[in-house]
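To start, an entry.
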Amino acid sequence: MTAPLLLAWICAAFALELAAGIAVVLVRRHRRIALAAAPTAVQSTPRAGQAWAGWREFRVVRREFEDAAQTQCSFYLVPVDGAELSEFKPGQYLTLALDVAGDSGTASPRPITRCYSLSGRPHPLHYRITVKRVGPPPLAQGLPPGVASNHLHGRVREGDVLRVKAPAGRFVIEPDDQTTPVLIAGGIGITPLLAMLNWWLAELPGRPIHLYYGLRHSREHAFRPWLEQQAAAHPHFHLTVACSRPDPGDEPGRDFQHLGHIDIELLRRTLSAGHHRFYVCGPPAMLSGVLPALRGWGVAPQDICHEAFGPASGDAPGAVTPSPASPEPGAASFEVRFARSGRTLAWDGRDASLLAFAERHAVAVDSGCRAGSCGSCETRLIEGQVGYAEPPDHDIAPGHCLLCVGTPRSALVIDA
């Protein structure tokens, strides 16, 4: 073999070895990139049956009025990413971020946060919320109509995309509970109770269950065909509709079973003996009558679950906001300074929360769910300590507090 030929073979072997080495390096690099990208893809799409963090986009695929007066509209929401939905407990709600038009045609939309109860049983493909359009309070001149509900009714159409947080809330059923459920609804307070009723009828169709539904007149009777069909199909489901101001054409026995408001005398007359658990949802005025009456009847506190709807301008379910009470003897008194508003006020324990305290003194603060879940009222805490009767659902940022469920534990300075 000549020297040039030997050199050619050596060069060829070297080139082949170099090419093989480059190929190995490229394959390994490709695998590293794929492995590094895999966790990101999993994190961006929620796993089946699990909640997601932060906001997620949902498309409105269907709108449907549920009452003859067309004041209560259901919105069916499907995730834009196509992933399966998080499971939820009947009674929970969704938190929505809405871009509401400004006060004038030239004003920029302003973001607001509101919470609406899930009104259907858990479904793998969609969520359903039902929203009542809230007008100006009839006895309060100058107050505006419900901002969020009128935006949803008047501007949100099929195909629109909304930002939604995962289901939350503690007003829920316990599937293993053996007591007889008694659902008491006032107006649009029927929505979380519908989800509960749906679940019980589907999963435990032989369980006795009572629904008392308080309305002004039959035109406000939401989901009437469905409720009447279920009452006819399930002999253990007892439906009682109470009308406080029936229309002239409303007939007893056909449109309602009780004239007036839901009260203890009605419950005494229609409930059989046994261990009952009461789930009550409606406006604060209703709860202020029903809840003390249930306690006076001897119902144990652990057998009374309730949720109230906030003020008309809020359109949101949440914690009960009672009227200010008299300060209790010995209640702690603290100085609360709202830094941006320039107000220094004395907390004396008569308000249920810092939010109620601020509103009573006309200090403007944002709010949404009024139950510690949406984070709309999260405010920077400059000085002092705020306490909570129960840990809020919302993850509070360091150095901040939730006004809607917080109370002072010391003198405060709040950035509001």
